[in-house]
Predict the 3D structure of the following.
Amino acid sequence: MQNPIIFWFRQDLRAYDLPGLAKALNSGQPVIPCYIYDPEAAGDWAPGGASRWWLHHSLMSLASDLEALGAQLCLRSGHTQTELQALCEETSASAIYCSRQLEPWATAQEQALHDHFNAADITFKRYPGSLLFEPEAIRTGGGTPFKVFSPFWRACLAQPEPAQPLALPEGTWHSAANSLELDTLALLPTKPDWAKGWHELWSPGSDGARQRLGVFLDEALYNYGEGRNLPAHNFTSRLSPHIQFGEISPREIWHAAKASEAAGADSGEVRKFLSELGWREFSHHLLAMDPHIPEQPFKPNFANFPWLGNAEHLLAWQRGQTGYPLVDAGMRELWQTGYMHNRVRMITASFLTKHLLIHWRSGEDWFWDTLCDASLATNSCSWQWVAGSGADAAPYFRIFNPTAQGKKFDTEGDYIRKWVPELAGLPKKYIQEPWTAPADVLESAEVRLGENYPEPIVDHAAARQGALDAYAAIKAS
Ligand code: FAD
C-alpha cells in the first residue's frame, strides 16, 4: 500500500470544494481525514463559548458527511505538531496537507509545522480555499496591499473570476486507529446550557449552509440592498457562521449568486451581496498585511485615545441594560442566539466606543466569546472600523444616534419588542426613547423606568460631545 496523506482539517469543515483535500485524493495515495482540537495554539484567540458550540456540531456534521463518502474522521486533541507526528508514525503517512489560514498565530503554526515535517522528510503543504482572492494576488499599482475598500474590491473584480467549486473528491481513504469521541472535547456548555434553544435557530454543517444559501437566494436576495439594514426582517443570509467554519466555500456562494443573476435576479442586488463578501476578503487581507490589528489600533494616533473604561457601563452594555432600547435589543439578540444583525452590530459597537468611551478591545473580546461567527479578521477590523482607528474606517465624528437609527431602521419597533419584551407594550412613538413617554403611557405599557427597564445610562448629547472632545485631544497630540 502507498503511504497515506493526512488531510488536516482546520477552519474548513467541509468535504467538498477543498483544494487541499482534492489534491490529496487525486494523488492516488489513501487519505486520512483528521481534526486536532488545540485551543492553546491560538493563544488569546482560542475559540469563545459560542464558537465552541458551533464547532462541536460542525465536526459532527463533517464526520457524518465523510462517513457517507466512506471515510472516518480521525479526531484528536492536544498539541498539533505532537499529534500530527504521532499520526504519521502510527500510519506511515508521508505527507500532510491542509488549507491555509491567515490569523497570525495560524500562519506562525503553519511555518513551524512546515519546518518540522520537512526536516523529517514528511511533506507539509498548504492550499487556498477560504477566500475568493489570495492576499498576494491583490496589490495596488505600487505593489503594496490596499488600505481602502473600494479600490481593493475593484482590483478583486478585475481579476479572473474565482474558479468553479470543485466536484466531490474521489479517491481512497485510510482510517486511523485511536480517534477520540467528540464529547471528550467538552465543547458544549453544560452548567448552565445557555445554548439550549440554538438547534431551532441554526443547522451547523455543510447541508445547513447550502440550505440557508438556497433560502436566501430564493426569498431575500431580491431586496438585499435595502432590506439588509432592517434588523426585524430576514433579508440577510445569516451564512456568517457557516462561512467562518468553512462549511461552505466563498466561491460556491459567489457562483450560486451569479447563477441567480443569470436566472433573472437583479444584478444590483447580486453586486451588493457579493461586495459584502468583499468586506470579508478585505478584513482578511488587512490582517495578512498587519498581524497586530486584533490588538493595536491600525491608525497609530489612536494609541493615545483617552478611553474611560467604566466597568459598570461595560456590564450594562453586555447585559443589554443601557436604557437605549435598540442597543439593548442587539446585545440580547447576541446573548440569546450567538448572532447580531449587522446594522445593530455597528450601533452597539459605536455606543460602546463613543457613548461610553470604552476601548474597542473590550467589545471585540465580548463579541469573540458570544458570536457564533467570531472571526479574528472580521471582528477586529470591524471593531476598529467603528471605533475610527481602522483602515478605511468610519470617520470618528460620525457617531450613531441609537434612537435616530432605531426610528430609521426599526420603524415599527418590532426588533425591540422581540428582544426587549418589557417594552413591548409601548407605542412605536415612544419605543425608541421610553424616557420621553408620558407617565400614563408608561403605566399602561407596564414600563417602570429605573425598575423593570433602566433609565439611559448616559445622556446622548453629553456623551456625543465627550466623544468629540476625546477625539479632538488625540488629533491635537
Ligand atoms: P450577509 O449580509 O448575508 O453577508 C454575507 C456574508 O458577507 C456574511 O456572512 C459575511 O461573511 C460577509 N459580510 C457581511 N457583512 C460584512 C462586513 N461588514 N464585514 C465583513 N464581512 C461581511 N462578521 C463575521 O463574520 N464575524 C465577526 O466576528 C464579525 N464581527 C463584527 C463586529 C462588528 C463590530 C461589526 C460591525 C461587524 C462584524 N461582522 C462580523 C460583520 C457582519 O456584521 C457580519 O458578517 C454579518 O452581520 C453576518 O450576517 P449575514 O451572514 O446575514 O451577512
